[in-house]
Structures are given as C-alpha cells and as structure tokens.
C-alpha cells in the first residue's frame, strides 16, 4: 500500500520518515525532493559526508546494488523523529545487510535535516574491544 499524505493538519516527522523510507524502498526517486526542504541538509556521521537536497537524492538513486529498505523502529513526536531501518543489497555479487539509524528534523511539513549512521551487519568487533571469555 502506497503512503498518502494525511488529510487533515500538518504532516508530523514520524509520517515524513515513514514516507521517506517507503519512497526509497519503492525506488520513486522523483518523489524524494517533495519530502525534503529546499535547504535540506544530510550528514553521514560514519563517513563525514554532507549532502544538500539534490546531491542526497542523486546519491540514493545512483547507489550501486541497492535492494530493499524496511523501517524497523521509529520513535518521535512533533518535528523530531529517530528511526532504524534494515537495508539489503548486493556487493561484489554477494548479499549485503546494513542497519541505518536516522535522526530527522522536520520543518513546514518536509524534512529539513537528517543525520544517518550506517553499520554493516556482517562486521566482526575489532580485536580487543570485548572482555575475555571464561
């Protein structure tokens, strides 16, 4: 079922994040800009990259090997929301699984700012970062 704008009142941040993830999962790249403020800013904490609206849409649309994006958790109210999504894809011919935490600020019914933190689900913890096992 496709996401639709609520019929009454302003769009809250939780609804915007749900719409954003559904739009990405459905690969409706031309629909992404309508969810983002003209001065939208995104920051990828794990790489230090920043994007404006157009470059973030292009980055997502052109991302190699993208498969699916499913929102697993969402919490928020008013103009702030945090969510976690599971993302699948392929890399070098193999299935890949990622988790992304997204922190969103909405303004005037669109997403104004977003911070993303991505993690590879198949990564082993670095040596020396866990207590010894008995």
Rg to the nearest angstrom?
16 Å
Task: Kindly identify the CATH topology.
Answer: Nuclear Transport Factor 2, Chain: A
- The neighbouring-strand order within the major sheet is 2-1-6-5-4-3
What is the level 1 CATH name? Alpha Beta
What spatial form do the alpha-carbon principal axes imply? globular
Mean pLDDT: 90
Number of domains: 1
**Which runs of at least 5 residues are low in confidence (pLDDT < 50)?**
1-9
Key structural traits:
disordered N terminus; 134 residues; 6-stranded mixed sheet; Nuclear Transport Factor 2, Chain: A; 46% strand; 6 strands
How would you sum up this structure, described in words?
The chain is α+β, with helices and mostly antiparallel strands. It has one domain: Nuclear Transport Factor 2, Chain: A (Roll). It contains two helices and six strands; from the N terminus they run H-E-E-H-E-E-E-E. The protein has helices at residues 13-25, 53-61, and strands at residues 36-44, 49-52, 66-77, 80-91, 94-107, 110-120. It is globular and about 55 Å long. The chain starts with 12 loop residues before the first helix and ends in a 14-residue tail after the last strand.
């Amino acid at each position: 079922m496709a996401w639709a704008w609520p019929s009454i009142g302003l769009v809250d941040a939780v609804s915007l994040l749900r719409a954003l993830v559904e739009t990405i999962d459905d690969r409706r790249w031309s629909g992404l800009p309508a969810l983002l403020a003209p001065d939208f800013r995104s920051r990828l904490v794990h790489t230090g990259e920043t994007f404006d609206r157009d470059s973030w849409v292009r980055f997502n649309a052109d991302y190699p090997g993208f498969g699916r994006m499913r929102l697993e958790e969402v919490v928020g109210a008013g103009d702030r929301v945090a969510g976690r999504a599971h993302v699948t894809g392929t890399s070098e011919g193999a299935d890949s699984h990622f988790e992304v935490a997204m922190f969103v600020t909405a303004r005037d019914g669109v997403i104004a700012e977003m911070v993303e933190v991505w993690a590879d689900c198949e990564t082993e913890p670095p040596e020396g970062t866990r207590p010894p096992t008995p």
